[in-house]
TrEMBL record:
Lineage: Bacteria, Bacillati, Actinomycetota, Actinomycetes, Kitasatosporales
Compartments, record wording: Cell membrane
Pfam families: CbiQ (PF02361)
Membrane topology designation: Multi-pass membrane protein
Keyword set, alphabetical order: Cell membrane, Membrane, Transmembrane, Transmembrane helix
Transmembrane segments: 44-65, 72-92, 112-136
UniProt protein name: Cobalt ECF transporter T component CbiQ
Recorded coiled-coil stretches: none
Domain of life: Bacteria
Source organism (scientific name): Streptomyces chrestomyceticus
Length: 253
């Protein structure tokens, strides 16, 4: 874990948000998402305020709007599911532009879109301001089960290894004039997948032996780091505290 590892969502910077300890940011985002989920879906105006809060965080972190919007495309499958709900859900029907739509389906689609988008945006901001090593250390400091942290760490790092191996195999096929153009080439692709599995398995064994030879005993070392100060926790709590106030107003008004 001590080795640096950059991911595509991370945006290097020196903003106040980047400077916060990782575990403070993880806890803040988790509390914010839980607050958004607890908000009644009929309080439409509250979700606009949540979006403004995230926009303020993005501005403080110096994360451009284009960077954020581009990475929100990951929720497109959920958007497609939400769009279908008014057409397939049962219950009272309302007519919009001459089309009969389910009223509960419309509220369900709005609930998924609003809360899902805010949750994804908060997660993207967390990833944009915290590198992978920081996220893993933050999870450890929050007392997440060590085995789960190790699984996440190995999965992310080894995913890059497999992707690089797959890229080399593709280059080797292209250099030999092969290009998949139809069903008759599926056999070659299947053999490539089998070869990738064998290479990945062998690479995993070599990595494990290398770790054991260097003293790995089943646990990862936790780097020494100063505990978060009260001021840092206060700054991190600003987002969920403001969101909680909005949520309470949404339930009372």
């Amino acid at each position: 874990m001590s080795a640096g590892h950059a991911h595509k969502l991370y945006r290097h910077g020196h903003s106040p948000v980047h400077a916060l300890p990782p575990h403070c940011k993880i806890a803040a985002v988790l509390c914010f998402v839980l607050t958004v989920v607890a908000t009644p879906r009929t309080a439409v105006w509250t979700f606009a305020l949540y979006a403004l809060l995230l926009a303020a965080v993005a501005a403080a972190a110096r994360v451009p709007a284009g960077f954020l919007l581009k990475r929100l495309l990951v929720e497109v499958p959920f958007v497609a599911f939400a769009v279908l709900m008014p057409f397939v859900a049962t219950g009272p029907r309302v007519h919009i532009l001459g089309t009969a739509l389910s009223e509960p389906g419309l509220w369900g689609a709005w609930n998924i879109l609003a809360k899902g988008t805010l949750g994804v945006a908060a997660s993207v901001l967390l990833a944009a301001t915290t590198d992978l090593r920081g996220l893993l250390i933050g999870l450890q400091r929050l007392r997440m089960p060590p085995l789960l942290v190790q699984i996440a760490s190995f999965m992310i790092r080894y995913g890059d290894v497999i992707a690089d191996e797959l890229r080399r195999m593709r280059v080797a096929r292209l250099s030999r004039g092969f290009e998949a153009r139809g069903v008759r080439h599926w056999g070659v692709l299947a053999k490539s997948a089998g070869a990738l599995f064998i290479r990945s398995y062998e690479r995993g064994e070599r990595v494990h032996l290398a770790m054991v030879s260097r003293g790995y005993t089943g646990t990862l070392p936790v780097p020494d780091a100063a505990a978060a100060t009260g001021a840092q926790w206060t700054r991190a709590a600003a987002l969920p505290a403001a969101a909680l106030a909005v949520c309470l107003l949404g339930w009372t008004l």
